[in-house]
Design brief:
mainly alpha
């Protein structure tokens, strides 16, 4: 079992990035440009740009280490998770028309849409290749195949969630709270749950423990997204790395959807009208936020983030195999990331 001195989060991240760099090295001179784009998007190009917190692979490695007592043998799975996540981000940026990610130009704005799509496809393929190294590390074929099936099902869920998100974004009708949780379950929670489940199933054959870890990841994924929705309207730019502009961008996030379901007739009609318009003035954005405040949407969203955070911790404790140090590290990540 790990001890407090064994768990160095910076080391886990560095080892994950080293594993990824081995996969995204140039295959031959003629394709140098492709791997250069891959490394640019991942912020592994030596520029010093931020590649994000690597939360998904980090959680998977901590899940594995909390059972197995070390993390090295799970690194291919962690690399696969991060590469798979980033394939979806490249495509999301194109689909959403986002011109900046983590304070620098998105890939498609630098190299064009066709090359960016191909780079996203490359990241997906590399995520699959990453898993094959698990066989070299001594994991059984049955375990590797099970992990591949988990990743394939998760990628399909991501695509389904993105479909629902895009459909909602072009509709004049606001989705329901129930529909929202279905969407983020596929788009956000599924990948975090799979990351943590992957770490657990590599470390143990105990199906009860694996199920608990998956439940932990699922609730945590929901908490992450709901908290992000809260920050997207009321969060400071320093906390999110972007403007608090979800309302200006007409995003159907939980506060807006909840307000639409619970508001009185006048506020509901006004909210519907404001979201049906292609653009909003600063005064209209402020009007939307005022409606959200009146309906209690801010407090409701905060309560939901806390609810799923606490549910995640309960699932984690229910697994019954965690060392104190790993439990503390996981809780630190959860509490720091979920500010509600």
């Amino acid at each position: 079992m790990t001890t407090s001195t064994d768990i160095d989060l910076d080391l886990l991240i560095a080892d994950t990035e080293a594993e990824i760099l081995r996969l995204v090295a140039d295959r031959d001179p003629s394709t140098h440009g492709l791997y250069e784009m891959v490394r640019y998007h991942l912020a592994l190009d030596g520029s010093g740009a931020s590649g994000g917190k690597r939360i998904r692979p980090l959680l998977g490695l901590l899940a594995y280490a909390s059972i197995a007592g070390e993390h090295a043998r799970a690194l291919p799975g962690a690399a696969a998770v991060e590469l798979g996540h980033n394939f979806s981000l490249v495509h999301d940026d194109i689909e959403d028309g986002d011109v900046e990610r983590r304070h620098r130009p998105t890939l498609w704005t630098v190299h064009g849409i066709p090359q960016a799509i191909n780079t996203g496809d490359t990241l997906f393929s590399l995520s699959r290749i990453a898993l094959h190294r698990l066989s070299d590390l001594g994991f059984s074929d049955a375990k590797v195949l099970r992990l591949m099936r988990l990743f394939d099902e998760t990628c399909l869920a991501l695509c389904e969630g993105q479909y629902l998100d895009i459909a909602a974004s072009v509709s004049n009708e606001l989705m329901t709270v129930e529909g929202y949780f279905d969407m983020i379950g596929r788009k956000t929670a599924a990948l975090i749950a799979a990351s943590i489940e992957a770490g657990a199933l590599l470390a143990t054959d105990d199906e009860t423990v694996i199920a608990r870890y998956r439940g932990f990841g699922w609730a945590l994924g929901l908490a992450f997204q709901v908290n992000d929705d809260l920050l997207g309207i009321w969060g400071a730019e320093r906390a999110t790395g972007k403007e608090a502009s979800d309302v200006a961008h007409r995003k159907q996030t939980l506060p807006v959807i909840y307000a639409h379901e619970t508001a009185g007739p006048e506020d509901r009609a006004r909210l519907q009208a404001l979201y049906a318009a292609p653009d909003r003035t600063p005064a209209e954005v402020a009007e939307v936020v005022a409606i959200l405040e009146r309906t209690g949407a801010r407090e409701y969203t905060r309560e939901q983030a806390r609810r799923y955070r606490d549910e995640a911790l309960a699932e984690l404790d229910g697994a019954g195999v965690l060392g104190a140090a790993a439990r503390t590290r996981l809780e630190q990540i959860i509490v720091s990331a979920i500010t509600a």
